[in-house]
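Notebook B, p. 112. Complex prediction, attempt 2.
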Amino acid sequence: MELPNLLYDFINWLLTFERDALILGASAIGIGFAMIAGIGPGVGQGYAAGKAAEAVGDNLKNSKQITMIMLLGAAVAETSGILALVIGLIMLFGNPFITMQGDTFIIMGSAIGAGLTMIAGIGPGIGQGMAAGKAAEAVGRSPRNNRHITMVMLLGQAVAQTSGILALVIALILMYGNPMVTMDGSIYVLTASAIGAGISMITGIGPGIGQGYAAGKGAEAVGKRPKHKALIIRTMLLGQAVAQTTGIYALIISLVLMFANPLLALV
Amino acid sequence: MGTEGFGPRIVELPFGLQVTETVTVTWWIMAGIILLAWLATRNLQMVPGKRQIVVETIVKMINNLTKQTMGEKNIKFAPYIGTLMIFLAVANLAGLLGLRPPTADINTTLALALITFFMIHSFGIRTKGIGKYVKGFFEPFFLLFPINMLGELATPISLSFRLFGNIVGGLIIMSLLYGALGGFSSALLSLNIPVLAVGVPAVFHIYFDLFSGLLQSFIFTMLTMVYVSMAMD
C-alpha cells in the first residue's frame, strides 16, 4: 500500500504552505490550461487562410471578396481564444479565488477546473475556421452570392461557438458562484469534483468542430443555390442541434458534479 | 455574477434607490432611441426629404431581412426584430462613448434571451397546436425526450452567454489595456497623465466594440428569427 501513503504525504506537504500561495499556484496552473484553447483558432485560421489562398489562385479577379470573407471568418474564429484569454487575465489581475471563503483544497481544484473548461475552445476555433475556409472557397466560385454566403457562415459559426460558451459558463460559475466551497462533505471528493467538472467540459471540442463543418458545408451549398437558403439554414441548424447533444451531456455532468453531487453521499 | 472586480458599479439614486450602472445606461439608451424615433417620424411627407429617406431605408432593410429569414407571412415580427437589432447595436457600441455596455451584464442578455425563448414556445404552440407541439419533443423517437428538453433549455443559455461573453470579454481586455497603458506612461515617461492611452486602444476598440459588438447584435437577432420561424412550422 505505497500509493495511498504517497498521496497522504503529498497532501501533508501541501499543507505546510500558506493558503494564499496554494491558491495562487493552482490559479497559475489553471491559467496555463485555459490558454491551450489557442490550438483551435490557430488550426482553424490556418485552414481558412489556406482555402482562401487556393480560391484566389483559382479565381484571381475575386481576390478582394475572398480576402474579405476570409478575414471576417477568421476574426470570428478568434473568439474562443479571446474568451480563454479573458479567463486567464481575470485569474491574473482580478483573481476571485483568493478572496473566496471556504476550504483551500476545493478552491485550488476550482481554479484548475476553471482553466480546464476553457480547453473546449479548441473545438469552436477549428470549426469556425473550417467554416471560414469553405465560405472563402464558395465566394471565390460565385462572388454574386457573397451576401448569402456571409450570412450562412456567420450563423453557422455562431452556433458552433455554443460549446465554448457553455464552457465559459462553467468557468464563471466556478469563479463567481462556486457552490462547492461551502458544501458539507469530503474535501477530497469535492476537490476532485471541481477538477472533474472542468475536464468534462473539454467534450466541447467535438461539437465545435462538427458544427463548424456543418456551417462550412451550409455556406458552400448556399453559394451554389442561394434560392434554397431558408431550407439549407434549417437543415444545418437541425443537424447542429443534434451535434450539440454530447456537449450537453458534458454540461449536465459538470452541473451535477457541482450542485448535486451523488458521490458525496457515498463517503 | 459577482459585483466585485469587473462587475457593474452600484449607482445611488434619490429616495434611497440603488440600481446598477447597467440600468442607468439602459435608461440613457432608451431615451436616446425614443428621441431619435420621434425626431425621425415627425412631419412625414409623400415626397421624402433627406432625413425621411435614411429612415425609410433602415425600415425597408429590416423588413426585407425579416421577410427573407422568416418568410413573407411572418412580416408582423419586423417591429420587434428591428427594435431588438437597434437596441443591441446601440447598447454594444456604448463602450465607444466610455459607458459600460448594458449587454456586459448577464441580466440584460438573459432577459432578452428569455423573450426569445417564450416567443419560440408560445408561437410554436399557437401555430402548431398543443398536440403537435408536445409530440415534437418525442421525435425522432420517444426515448429522446430528455435530450430534446435540455436542448430547448440550452437555447436561451447559449443565446444570452454568447452575447454576454463577447461583450464582457472585450470590456475586461479594454479596461486592462487602459490600466497597463497608464502604468507604462507613468513608468517610462514618469508622467501622471496616461499619454500612451491616446491612439493605441483605437485598434482594439475597432475589433472589440465595432466588429464584435455589431456582429453579436446581428447574430442574436438572426438566431431569434430563425428559431422562432423554425418553431412555427
